[in-house]
Amino acid sequence: MARPLRVWVDHRRCVGNSMCEALAPAVFRLNASRQSEAINPAGDTEEKVLEAAENCPVSAIFVEDAQTGVRLFP
Amino acid sequence: MGMVTLSDDMFVADVIADPYPYYGRLREEDPVHWNELYELWVVTRHDDVVWMTRHHELFSNAVFRNDPRPAYPAIDESDLGLYEYVRNYQADQFIQHDRPEHLEMRKVVHSYFTPRAMEAWRPFVQKAVQELLDAAEHKGHMDVMKDVATPLPVLVIAQMMGVPAADRPHVRKLAEKLLNIGRGEHDRMKPLTEGMQGMIDYVSPLVDERLTNPGDDFISVLAAGERNGVFTRHQVLVNTSLLLLAGHETTINLLCNGTLAFIRHPEQWALLKGDPEGWAQRATEECLRYDAPVKSLQRLATQDVDMRGKVLRKDDRVRWFISSANRDPEAFAQPDRFDITRDPNPHVAFGSGVHHCLGATLARVEGQEVFKALAERFPSLHLEPEVLEYQPSITFRSLKSLPVAWS
Fold it and tell me: What does DSSP assign to residue B53?
C-alpha cells in the first residue's frame, strides 16, 4: 500500500511551464491563470510525483509524507 | 501643448542607449501598440506579457518557419540567400515549435537542465570564474565582456557538449561568429552562417560517436532523441548550436548589464560587498529585472485575439517587451530603482509558460558566482572610460564592451 503524500505548488514561483502536468497529468493540472495545482496527490505513483517535482524548472513543487510530515522533495 | 507622438523607430540612438523611457511611454499611453514601421504589435505591460506567455496556443513560436516578412534591421540584398539558410537553421530549433511537437522535443532535453542538475555545475563555474579573474587581476583593468562574460558561458557549454580541451579554441571562435545573431550590422549574415555551418561540421562526427557510445553529455542526450525518432539529424545538430545561440549572448548580457548596474549604484555595491554569499541570489534576480539580457521576443498570433480593445489578427507579428514588463509600476514598487533587497521579484527575464528559458538555473548560477567573485576580489571596481555603447538590437540588451579598473 502506497503511503499518502502531501503535495503542493508555490504559486509565487510557478511559471506554468506545465512539465509536471505532462509527466503526471492525474496529479497536477494548470488552473485558469495557467499555474499548476496538485489536484490529486494519490493520482500516480510516488516515483512519478517525485519525478514531476524534480523536473519543475523553478522548484515550485513540494512533497511530504502526509502521515509523518517528512519532506520528500526538495 | 500637444503630446509628441512616439516614433516607431526603436533603433534610434537614444532608444538603443536607454530604452526605458520609451517603454514607459508605451506602457502608459498605448500598452498594446501597432508599430507601423516593423508591422508588429508591441506589448509592454507586465500582466499582459505574463498572460501571453501562458497562452502559448494563441501565440505561435514557429516564427522562422512561418513569418514571411524580412529580417530587421535590414540586411544586404546580396545576403538574402544566406538569410534563407539562417531561417531554415533556426526553424529546426526545438524552441521554434509549438505543441504537441514542442513538448516531445523539450522532454528530451528538459531533465538535463533541472535545478538540481544545474546546481551540480556550480563548482565548475566557480573554478572557471576564479581562473578568468586570476588572468586579469595583475593588469589592474579588464573588459568584463571580453575577459569574463564572453569566455565563461563557452567554457561551461563546451564542457556540457563534451568537447575535448584541444578543440575549445575552435568552439570559442564559432561561438563568437554565432553572436552575430543578435547584431544589427547589415553584413552580419556571412559570419553568422559561417558559425552555424561550422557548428554543424564540428558536431556531426560527435553525434555519430555518441550514438554508438553514449555518455552523460548534452550531445548524447540529443542523440538519444534522434534514436527515439523525436529529432532528425539536422535537429540534433541545430539544437546543439542552440546551446550557444541561446546561452551565450544572454549570459554575456546578464553579467555585463549586472556589473554595470552595480558600478552605477555604489550603495547597492556596498550592500553586496558586505555579504557577497548572502546577497548573490537576490542580487542576480534584480540584475535580471533591472536591465534584462533579452529586451523582447516575437511570436505570431494563431487566431484573432482581443487585447485592451485592440484586435490582433491571425498571423500578425507580436512582440512582448520583457524589459518593459520588468519596469511596470503595477508589478514593482519604484520600478526604476536598482534594489537588490527586492523580494518577491516576479520579473519575466526568462519568460514564462511552456517556453520558460531552459537554461534559467544555469544563467542564475553563472550570475551569482560572477557577482559574488567580483565583490570579493575587486571591491573598488569602477568604469574606465565612461563611454558605453550598445548593440543596435530590438531583441538583446547588449553592451559592446565594459572596460573596468580597480586599485
Answer: H
- Do A63 and A48 meet the contact criterion of CB atoms below 8 Å apart? no
Q: Would you call B114 an interface residue with chain A, using a CB distance cutoff of 8 Å?
A: yes
Task: Inspect the interface and report whether the beta carbons of B55 and A55 lie closer than 8 Å.
Answer: no
Cell numbers for B362: 544555469
Per-residue pLDDT of B265-277, as tens digits, reads 999 999 999 999 9
Spell out which residues of chain B touch residue A57, defining contact as CB-CB under 8 Å.
Answer: 110, 113-115, 356, 358, 360-361
Number of domains observed in the structure of chain A: 1
Residue B26: phi and psi, rounded to 5, are -60, -45
What residue numbers bound the domain in which A18 lies? Answer: 5-73
How long a stretch of residues is chain A?
Answer: 74
How far does the CA of residue B180 sit from the closest CA of chain A (Å)? 29
- Yes or no, beta carbons of B352 and A15 under 8 Å apart: yes
d(CA A58, CA B360): 9
Contact B354 A55 (CB under 8 A): no
Closest among A9, A17, A25, A37 to B54, alpha carbons compared: A17
ipTM over 0.90: yes
- Residues A55, B358: C-beta atoms closer than 8 Å: no
- Residues B304-337 have pLDDT tens digits of 999 999 999 999 999 999 999 999 999 999 999 9
Residue A36 is part of a domain; what is its CATH number?
3.30.70.20
Chain A: residues touching B (Cβ < 8 Å): 12, 15-19, 22, 33-34, 54-59, 74
Confidence band (pLDDT; 50, 70, 90) for A1?
A: low
| 3-state secondary structure at position B142 | strand
Lowest mean pLDDT among B3-7, B54-58, B201-205: B3-7
Element (H, E) at B59: strand B59-60
Cβ separation A34–B115 shorter than 8 A: no
- 3-class secondary structure per residue, B272-319: HHHCHHHHHHHHHHHHHHHCCCECEEEEEECCCEEECCEEECCCCEEE
